[in-house]
Design brief:
protease, 10 strands, ribosome binding, Nuclear Transport Factor 2, Chain: A, peptidase activity, M-AAA protease-interacting protein 1, mitochondrial, six-stranded antiparallel β-sheet, single chain, 22% helix, globular, 5 helices, 254 residues, NTF2-like_dom_sf
């Protein structure tokens, strides 16, 4: 189910996506502060010549990790036309809106934002989402979260290390009737979660299961998906921050 906020002024995500050199908004709540998100520039490495299969994996972390090493590989073939289209949009953003826009930085910040927001949703700490998620989406979330079962609510949470794969979806550049300029980027996430879900969830959607270990120590985790849309206003004088204006956890948050 899509939870979407209308375009226009909303509450802005200042910590994850603040432009370099700009002041960042103070925390919106005093209790249980939201973890700070790293936003550090890194030298851009060599870029692929075109779309290809992409891989992400998790393994035992560090020498102290117990048990056998774990490895999960997620493979997705990108559409050449979709890849080219998104790169054209990124070029337009740099040419006409923000010459310092970085796809790598945006993707890194989007992953951190998705992890924090999804965990707050799972914990029903919706008050801490003010300033991170648009008010329109928050109003819908407050009604929907209370209706979820414990298992479905647990399945919303995505630890940053459990995000297997991230890619962009639709990218939109548009003006409203008042001439205000906006950019929206839809990000898709695949993540592992150990919630107790049935093999098949309603609606004929398959939940992929991954089992680690042998029969005596096996651990079952689900590979789930989520879609989050990030919006920023580029009108002169507007805050240089991004906000989440759409949240989808297919077959979970309904």
């Amino acid at each position: 189910m899509a939870l979407r906020g209308a375009a226009g002024p909303g509450r802005w995500l200042g910590r994850a996506f603040a432009a370099p050199g700009t002041a960042r908004a103070p925390p919106v709540a005093a209790a249980a502060p939201v973890p700070a998100w790293s936003w550090v520039r890194r030298p851009a490495g060599p870029r692929p010549l075109g779309p290809a299969a992409r891989f992400a994996s998790t393994q035992g972390r560090g020498p102290e990790a117990e048990g056998p090493r774990r490895r999960v590989v997620v493979v997705r073939i990108s559409s050449p036309l979709a890849w080219l289209r998104s790169r054209c949009y990124y070029l337009l953003i740099r040419l006409y809106f923000d010459p310092e826009f970085s796809v790598e930085e945006f993707t890194r910040g989007a992953k951190q934002a998705f992890s924090v927001v999804s965990q707050l949703l799972s914990q029903r700490k919706l008050d801490l989402l003010e300033g991170l998620v648009s008010s329109e989406v928050l109003n819908v979330l407050k009604e929907k979260i209370s209706l979820l079962s414990d298992n479905h609510r647990d399945a919303l949470a995505a630890d940053i290390d459990a995000i297997m794969y991230t890619t962009e979806g639709d990218i939109r550049i548009y003006y409203n009737d008042d001439g205000r300029k906006f950019v929206s980027i839809l990000m898709r996430f695949w993540y592992l979660n150990g919630a107790n879900l049935p093999d098949e969830v309603p609606g004929e959607t398959k939940v992929f299961q991954i089992v680690f270990g042998d029969e005596s120590t096996k651990e079952k985790r689900h590979l789930l998906t989520a879609n989050y849309e990030f919006q920023r206003e580029f009108t002169e004088g507007a805050k240089p921050d991004w906000t989440i204006t759409r949240i989808e956890h297919p077959r979970l948050l309904e």
